[in-house]
């Protein structure tokens, strides 16, 4: 397997350069990422795939400013995130990137609207009701703002999480297995929403997934193995993704 890199150009929504992330030290050290360079062009949807333990979540967390690289750099546009002090990074993260988790991570005691408002409140901003309602309408949940997450289906809860991630109009939306807890039909709704955020709103989306069907919604697939990018291709179809994953020998998991 040869290590591949993506050309690093200007005008990217996000990029990493020679990214390394090591956990622990000495004999217990795990080298989760071993020199990843990749760029994400505005208005594109990328699926990150690879065997379990290949470094997908670590890459997403470093890209989203939720984890610090051991070596290398992370950029959002022309801002070098990896050099920022913690407080500035937290500020910038709230305005520049959104994150969607497999487990939704909603606050059960809060209403849907309060969940969507939460990141802004944490940033010390007064909630803009119009923006919150607009975000909920964009994910097809107009009229649900007073419900609690427990009153919604899994797919609806994930759509609230997407509204929460999109309300600040981030430059990039990162999603870690966003359909992992959903059935196929509900997963389709969430993927279609991510796709339309790119097509209709010109957003940029980077999604980790094990599912070749989910990857078929993306414009490009990046394949990781053992902490490096080993393959990438555009216009993925489910069949092509399965075939390229099988070349890795690890299958989809
Ligand atoms: N906080 C941590 N401390 C120690 N090791 C870690 C930590 N986080 C991840 N690792 C290790 O780093 C490697 C990459 O993990 P990562 O979660 O990025 O892989 P992944 O491709 O997302 O896996 P999966 O598909 O199973 O979610 C694994 O060997 C993992 O055990």
Automatic annotation (TrEMBL):
One of its GO terms (molecular function) is ATP binding. Residues 14-251 form the ABC transporter domain. It holds the Pfam family ABC_tran. Keywords: ATP-binding, Nucleotide-binding, Transport. It comes from the Bacteria. PANTHER family: ABC TRANSPORTER RELATED, IMPORT ATP-BINDING PROTEIN. This is ABC transporter ATP-binding protein YxdL. It comes from Streptomyces cyanogenus. The lineage of its organism: Bacteria, Bacillati, Actinomycetota, Actinomycetes, Kitasatosporales.
């Amino acid at each position: 397997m040869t290590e591949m890199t993506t050309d690093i150009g200007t005008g990217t929504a996000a990029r990493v350069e020679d990214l390394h992330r090591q956990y622990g030290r000495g004999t217990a050290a795990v080298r989760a990422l071993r020199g990843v360079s990749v760029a994400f062009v505005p208005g594109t949807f990328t699926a990150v795939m690879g065997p379990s333990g290949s470094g997908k979540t670590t890459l997403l967390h470093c890209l989203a400013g939720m984890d610090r690289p051991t070596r290398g750099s992370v950029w959002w546009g022309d801002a070098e995130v990896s050099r920022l002090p913690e407080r500035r990074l937290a500020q910038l993260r709230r305005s520049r990137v959104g994150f969607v988790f497999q487990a939704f991570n909603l606050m059960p005691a809060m209403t849907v609207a309060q969940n969507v408002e939460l990141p802004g409140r944490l940033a010390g901003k007064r909630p803009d009701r119009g923006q919150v309602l607009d975000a909920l309408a964009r994910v097809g949940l107009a009229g649900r703002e007073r419900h609690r997450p427990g009153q919604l289906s899994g797919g609806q809860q994930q759509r609230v999480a997407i509204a929460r991630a999109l309300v600040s109009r981030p430059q990039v939306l990162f999603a870690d297995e966003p359909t992992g807890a959903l059935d196929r039909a509900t997963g389709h709704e969430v993927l279609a929403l991510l796709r339309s955020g790119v097509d209709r709103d010109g957003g940029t989306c980077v999604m980790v997934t094990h599912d070749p069907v989910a990857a078929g919604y993306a414009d490009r697939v990046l394949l990781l193995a053992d902490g490096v990018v080993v393959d990438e291709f555009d216009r993925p179809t489910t069949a092509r993704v399965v075939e390229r994953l099988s070349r890795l020998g690890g299958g989809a998991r």
